[in-house]
Design brief:
heterodimer, A: mainly beta, Elongation Factor Tu (Ef-tu), domain 3, 2 domains, seven-stranded antiparallel β-sheet, six-stranded mixed β-sheet, 4 helices, about 35% strand, B: TIM Barrel, about 35% helix, about 20% strand, binds flavin-adenine dinucleotide, binds flavin mononucleotide, binds FE2/S2 (inorganic) cluster, cytoplasm (chain B), Aldolase_TIM (chain B), FMN (chain B), flavoprotein (chain B)
Chain lengths: ~230, ~300
């Protein structure tokens, strides 16, 4: 059990939660969070947004029962964290762009901090932006786009590596726009999860190398490995 | 001395906690969370003769007090299991149960033969091997076979008989709660020489997306597990345990030590833990601690004192 330091609503339906403790995490990894006994049944996978020496930070959007229960937590309350799980992003040196869409910006803050040369960061939002100030110190260029298409402004040839997390359609568009270019694209996937540790095959997703588990083989995949033709469902 | 040990089909389990098929993988992952050598046994992910990709579309959905799954028996196939997963299984102590699925009788039979041969060879070399086959005639998530064999007693009889003839390993048959008559089914398994009965597998359920106006699952139906099914599973275990001599491995919705005790009082020799592994990645360890406290509190030396007392 871990103790909550703060849990603030930073925009409509968007919360930033700080949990006390010292955590060793790779960028792009996630934890399984639980703040209840038996109901709901499953814990919820949430990406690591940031790590400091004495706490870890999560950024989450309220979409259903589990995240609604998270939103009710107050300073001093307990939460169970299992993890970190997943492969996370590979640290590459070169010209790097980070592209986040909506709540998909969450894993990119801690990620941005890991590069020797500051990456360019592109953050897209449907109707309201949040947490963007936090990215500034770690960005070479920071582009924020609200209610538009964040991908329109990107000159792909300027980058060797792209790291992206956001809605499936956005990541698929990034994969398409970079096809045939000399740029490696890493996408961070979402799937419903039960165990989170690779034991249940609940999060299998089809790739060109056969089925992969999003919780252990992912959540990060090379865009070229993903089977974008398969119909996606969570 | 207090003891949790029990014997099923001539095999000694250090305690009655066995991890249920499909929720514990092959154990490797949970071994990183706690000492799985404390467990009584592990039933591995359902194996089929050939590798299976499983079902497309959504695979998991929560319900009030339970969950629906439509994994569709994704697994690496028996050859890959024997080649790769057995390397890890050789290093662990809990009783090793190979859960065997299939889509026709031939697949079940060939699968059982391969597992048996491998186990016999390993035993000759004094290595750890599969201890028991758990015949899964109850998976609701595969189109052909699976639960089709688990509904009608006389259809199931043929599979059980054929597999029984092909394996020297102790045989458990895992029953579906969707069986027309689960007591008849269990009695049939005993008649055909099964040494244990496992029940229950998941209940066939459904979830509809009212905006898309479709079933959430590509396969239409999915399997319901978790606390929501416990009262029904418990009743079925009780009914079956009263009617058969062979030991019963009871499961369905167990999520606490007191649930375990209920199943044992209803007549189960062993219990299996499924969905609770997702709710608590250290489920095994915590259930054992809870059972020990209960035994101390109630001054019980052996679970035999309370087994089947209802
Ligand atoms: C590796 C990973 C990292 C994630 N990181 C974050 C994060 O940093 N911040 C954040 O807000 N969310 C993140 N998610 C999504 C988050 O897990 C879900 O939003 C959450 O589980 C929904 O729970 P709920 O009970 O509120 O909603 P539910 O009532 O369970 O479902 C409501 C809706 O949420 C969506 N949903 C449910 N489960 C998932 C899931 N596992 N993944 C994606 N969507 C889901 C579905 O569209 C569903 O319709 C991540 C998911 C994964 C797999
Ligand atoms: C995700 C998942 C996968 C399962 N896969 C299998 C399987 O491969 N073979 C099998 O016999 N049972 C399988 N089951 C059924 C369980 O072993 C168990 O019988 C059932 O879930 C009821 O127990 P529970 O309520 O404790 O989970 C699976 C269950 C779940 C939840
Ligand atoms: S969530 Fe269980 S295998 Fe990924």
């Amino acid at each position: 059990m871990h103790t909550i330091l703060s849990n603030e609503c930073i925009a409509e339906g968007i919360y930033a939660m700080k949990v006390k403790g010292h955590f060793q995490v790779n960028m792009g990894q996630f934890f399984m969070l639980r703040a209840w006994e038996n109901h709901p049944i499953l814990s919820r996978p949430i990406s690591v947004c940031n790590v400091e020496h004495d706490h870890i930070e999560f950024l989450y959007k309220v979409v259903g029962e589990g995240t609604r229960l998270f939103a009710k937590l107050r300073e001093g309350d307990s939460i169970q964290l299992e993890g970190p799980f997943g492969n996370g992003f590979v640290n590459q040196s070169g010209r790097v762009a980070l592209i986040g869409g909506g709540i998909g910006i969450a894993p990119l803050l801690y990620t941005a901090k890991q590069f020797r040369n500051k990456p360019d960061i592109f953050l897209g939002f449907r109707d309201q932006s949040y947490l963007t100030e936090a990215y500034k110190p770690y960005a070479n260029e920071l582009h924020i786009c609200v209610n538009g298409n964040v991908l329109e402004h990107i000159e792909w040839s300027r980058y060797d590596y792209v790291y992206t997390c956001g809605p499936y359609a956005m990541m698929k568009a990034v994969a398409n726009l970079t096809k045939g270019l000399d740029v490696k694209v890493y996408v961070s996937f979402e799937k419903r999860m039960a165990c989170g540790i690779g034991a249940c095959y609940g999060c299998s997703t089809s790739t060109k190398q056969g089925n992969k588990k999003v919780c252990t083989d992912g959540p990060v995949f090379l865009a070229e490995e993903v089977d974008w033709h398969e119909e996606f469902s969570l | 001395m207090k003891s949790l040990a029990c014997e099923v089909a001539g095999i000694r389990f250090r305690n009655p906690i066995v991890m249920a098929s499909g929720t514990f993988g092959f154990g490797k992952e949970y071994a990183k969370m706690y000492d799985i050598n404390k467990l009584g046994g592990i039933s591995c992910k359902g194996l089929t003769l050939h590798p299976r990709k499983g079902n497309g579309g959504a695979r998991l959905m929560e319900t009030s007090g339970g969950m629906l799954n439509s994994i569709g028996l994704e697994n690496p196939g028996i050859d890959a299991f024997l080649r790769e997963e057995m390397r890890f299984w050789e290093t662990i102590e809990p009783v090793k149960i190979a859960n065997l699925g299939g889509s026709n009788i031939e697949e079940y039979v060939l699968g059982a033969m391969k597992i048996t041969q491998d186990a016999e060879e390993r035993r000759k070399q004094n290595r750890r091997a599969v201890d028991m086959i758990e015949l899964n005639i109850s998976c609701p998530n595969v189109k052909e076979g699976g639960v089709a064999f688990g509904i009608k007693t006389e259809v199931a009889r043929e599979v059980v008989r054929e597999v029984r003839q092909m394996t020297s390993l102790p045989l458990a048959v895992k029953l579906s709660p969707n069986a027309e008559n689960i007591v008849h089914m269990a009695v049939m398994c005993e008649e055909e020489g099964a040494e244990a009965i496992s029940l229950v597998n998941t209940f066939t359920g459904m979830k509809i997306d009212i905006y898309q106006r479709t079933s959430v699952f590509k396969n239409m139906y999915a399997g319901l597990s978790g606390p929501a099914i416990k009262p029904i599973a418990l009743r079925m275990v009780h009914e079956v345990a009263k009617q058969v001599e062979v030991p019963v491995m009871g499961m369905g919705g167990i999520a606490s030590a007191s649930d375990v005790i209920e199943f044992i009082m209803a007549g189960a020799s062993i219990v299996q833990i499924g969905t609770y592994n997702f709710m608590n990645l250290r489920a095994g360890e915590e259930l054992l601690a809870g059972i020990n406290s209960y035994m101390e509190l109630e001054n019980i030396q052996s679970l035999d004192e309370i087994r089947g007392i209802i």
